[in-house]
Amino acid sequence: MITRKSKREIEKMQQAGDLLVKCHKEVAKMIRPGITTLEIDTFVEKFLAKHGATPEQKGYSGYPYAICASVNDEICHGFPREQKLVDGDIVTVDMVVNLNGGLADSAWTYPVGNIDEAGQKLLNVSKTSLYKGIEQAQVGSRIGDIGHAIQTYAEGEGFSVVRDFTGHGIGPTIHEEPHIPHFGLPNKGLRLKEGMVITIEPMINEGSWHSKMDSNNWTARTIDEGRSAQYEHTVVVTKDGPLLTTDQDR
Question: What positions does the domain Peptidase M24 occupy (predicted)?
Answer without folding.
Answer: 11-239
